[in-house]
Amino acid sequence: MTLLEVKDLAVSFPTADGVVKAVRGVSFSVDAGRTLGIVGESGSGKTVLTQTLLGLTPGGDISGQAIFDGANLLTMTEDQMRNIRGAQIAVIFQDPLTSLHPLYKVGWQIEEMIRAHDRKVSRKEATERAIDLLNKVGIPQASQRVNDYPHQFSGGMRQRAMIAMALSLSPKLIIADEPTTALDATVQAQILDLLLRLQHEFDTALIMITHDLGVVADIADEVMVMYAGRAVEKASKHDIFYQPHHPYTKGLLESIPNSSAVTDRLKPISGQPPSLIRLPSGCAFHPRCTYVMDRCLDEVPELVAVGSAGAHRSACFLPVSAIGLGGDTEELRKKAVSEDRHAASAEVAEKIAAAPESEGSAIA
After folding, report:
1. If you count DSSP H runs as helices and E runs as strands, how many of each does the chain have, helices first?
2. Residue 363: per-residue pLDDT
3. pLDDT tens digits, 160-172
């Protein structure tokens, strides 16, 4: 059953330098008990997209729909939204140290969350529930640590406390905004295992925002790849990793270090993400794309079905059958490029190949 359905969401911010087009016509859905991974470089619009759902982007010009459990989140009043935040949609932010108030005990902050939404709960009952939640997320000696301040917790423990707070009212949906970025690899694995276990226990839907494809491989069911405020590819986790179509998705996969090929050079994506104030014409990825063609310079590709299943969609002009990482697929891509690359796009391709990060890589 679809719990959240976002349709053609656009968010922009007027500034002195121009209009920042942070999110540009993004659509997706999340089913109850399922996990959607949203992947992309910093500045691709991932956080703005999800914060807009909870009314946390003041000053933004917003259009589109976000239907959650039958109601449009984007048209709710502040009082209506206050009943949604925390109680039905919870958020785990990237840095728990800035999310937890340094002058209040961790337990008190969880209790406040509970009592803000349910005034019938006494302080004693809220404390008992906070201790139980800290136990569930693996905080040792929870009955004592509930009275500690945030600075007395390690980074991993603070993130566990934020997860406990997010679960305190049994929400239907949790948005995890890069919750493991500031953690070391061992603690990151523990947090991901904890999220998966609690998701199954509470049957909660999860949106995982990350730039780490390793996190997506561990936790997601479906994946949406974002670039310059748009969704450029949407598919199941399996298709994203084994049957990618969009060159940006392919680039992200190829830039992951491979432990079995320690002597090989990394394959970087040339260039930097574009300014969301001054977006390139046509496909926003074309200044960095090794498969750039003439039509990419002027036309904006729409999400279309690729492959054979129909659920896999990509916003690229390459042939819809050009999916995967094999040699035959690469030949299909090269053939399409040779047929539609002329002077203008050839000049762009030459600049990409001449970039310093291209030397010795697959794009040189």
Report:
1. 13, 12
2. 42
3. 898 889 888 889 9
Share of the chain above pLDDT 90, in %: 65
Q: Domain containing 201: what range?
A: 2-225
pLDDT value, residue 357: 61
| Domain tally, the chain | 2
Tens-digit pLDDT profile for residues 74-96: 999 999 999 999 889 999 888 88
State the Cα–Cα distance between residues 2 and 15, nearest whole angstrom.
36
CA neighbor of 45 nearest in space, from 205, 175, 240, 209: 209
Which of the listed residues 225, 240, 270 is the one where a domain comes to its end?
A: 225
Domain identity same for 177 and 272: no
CATH of residue 217's domain is 3.40.50.300
Of 14, 13, 11, which Cα lies nearest the Cα of 23? 11
More confident residue, 318 or 361: 318
Same domain, 219 and 314: no
Same domain, 219 and 256: no
Which element (helix H / strand E) includes 185? helix 185-202
DSSP state of 21: E
Strand intervals (E) in the chain: 2-15, 18-31, 35-39, 61-68, 71-72, 89-92, 173-177, 205-210, 222-227, 230-236, 304-305, 313-314
Question: pTM of the predicted model, to two decimals?
Answer: 0.90
